[in-house]
Amino acid sequence: MKRNHTMMQFFEWHVAADGQHWKRLAQMAPELKAAGIDSVWVPPVTKAISPEDTGYGVYDLYDLGEFDQKGTIRTKYGTKQELIDAIAECLRNGIAVYVDLVMNHKAGADETEVFEVIEVDPNNRNKEISAPFEIEGWTKFTFPGRGDTYSSFKWNHTHFNGTDFDAKGGRNGVFRINGENKNWNQNVDDEFGNYDYLMFANIDYSQQEVRSEMLEWGKWLVDTLQCSGYRLDAIKHINHEFIKEFAAEMTKKRGEDFYIVGEFWNSNLEACREFLNTVDYQIDLFDVSLHYKLYAAALGGRDFDLTHIFDDTLVQTHPGNAVTFVDNHDSQPHEALESWVGDWFKQSAYALILLRRDGYPVVFYGDYYGIGGPAPVEGKKEAIDPLLYARCHKAYGEQDDYFDHPNTIGWVRRGIEEVEDSGCAVVISNGDNGEKRMFLGEERAGEVWVDFTHNRRESVTIGKDGWAVFPVNGGSVSVWALPDGAEEKPAAQDMDDIEESTKNNSGKRTR
């Protein structure tokens, strides 16, 4: 019987730029597996504009920490061989590895070129605010440190459709590159009129030679690394038809179980549905809508109605394609999409993604191990570990929701025979102390359950009728389940005494 799958985003924005991250991953693989993690999403593995860059300022897609370029051989995270070794070690430990791909832009060009552009309004990229004029742009990539190794393709301004800096005039702007059949791609997000352009030199996927090169690179990368899947960055800015083609080619290359998840940062469900339709549901998407619901719940406190926490989320409407997350490197404090779920609600938020039937949940490295940089945040490993354990060993079977009070919600998982002692009852409060009376099944009568979070210290006995009352502290979560290897249930004749004792000791609580 396969256990529930759980992913970890194995980096945060301020991971030390010491070149040791791939070694850390290899070393930590056994403990990750033991904690219940069976896949990791690793940061961009390609050479970026500097040894400190997180990898999203991508320079050379074929340099995985092998060539002396941009002042370094290694990347921020280590060398190519260390990366290959880390992936192999993960696979030996039963952990799949998904590699982050940055395919929207290139940065750190080797030379400038002079070419014609039209400046557009940054807030409406369809609105031209200049006549055609020449700029000197950083768009020529010759890769002097690598040469023609692995690929002889050299990039120039014809392979891009926009850039953001004129070296001749020494000024920034959004400059659409002019030329025959040159324009923004129309199969992209429509924010700012057209959101093809995001940053740096924007790759033009209307060029067949560009598409061919990127497809060949995708195949080369998976052959080189033997990874289990890809995480695609910023796909709302990339020709959606190319994403469809890319996913199909990678699946054809590696088989149906090669996994792809895309970052389509749009909380509009209709836009997500249209995107999934376009790509024939070949990839999953991060549930951005749910992230913002969790953020709103953390901000709103008791004023947020928990019964609506899953309304208008991808995991509710497209559970088979939803990758759920609480926070990530972009939403962490002081980053581009800052929307950090507050500490008081963090454990509850993780319960909402880890202990339910639907979605493929991701644990963020920054939540688990902490965040570095100028404003450090302590990790919450001790709060998340019990939830990971419950996901791996308890959260199975039929799910019944008790979303019947704005400040106290609960659900049960009935358990399955294939996983011994499985089944759990989860209660979350964003207000006062509360409780939920929930049904587990008459066959569980007499079982004595405990709170795996240790937020509550008492035990709960399942009644003769299969029902029990599960308490929760105010502004907290409790995960009730049968302890592993628990003693046999009380004899049937003892149940009446237990029932009476439970009633007498339950105390008076609000819902």
Explain what you see:
The protein has about 500 residues and is of the alpha/beta class. It contains 11 helices and 27 strands. The protein has helices spanning about 20-35, 80-90, 210-225, 240-255, 270-280, 290-300, 315, 345-355, 365-370, 380-395, 495-505, and strands at about 5-10, 40, 45-50, 60, 95-100, 105, 110-120, 125-130, 135-140, 160-165, 170-175, 200-205, 230, 260, 285, 320-325, 360-365, 370, 375-380, 400, 410-415, 425-430, 435-440, 450, 460, 465-470, 475-480. It has an 8-stranded parallel barrel with strand order 1-2-5-13-14-15-16-17. Strands 6, 7, 8, 9, 10, 11 and 12 form a 7-stranded antiparallel beta sheet that branches. Strand 14, helix 5 and strand 15 (about 285) form a beta-alpha-beta unit. Helix 1 (about 20-35) runs parallel beside helix 2, helix 3 (about 210-225) packs parallel to helix 4 and helix 8 packs parallel to helix 10. The longest helix is centred in the middle third of the chain and has 18 residues, at about 210-225.
Briefly, what is this?
The protein is α/β, with parallel strands linked by helices. It has helices at residues 21-35, 80-92, 208-225, 240-254, 269-278, 288-300, 314-317, 343-354, 365-368, 381-393, 495-505, and strands at residues 7-9, 39-42, 47-48, 58-60, 96-101, 105-106, 111-121, 124-128, 133-140, 160-166, 171-177, 201-203, 229-232, 259-262, 284-286, 322-325, 360-364, 370-371, 377-378, 399-402, 408-413, 424-429, 434-439, 448-451, 459-461, 467-472, 477-481.
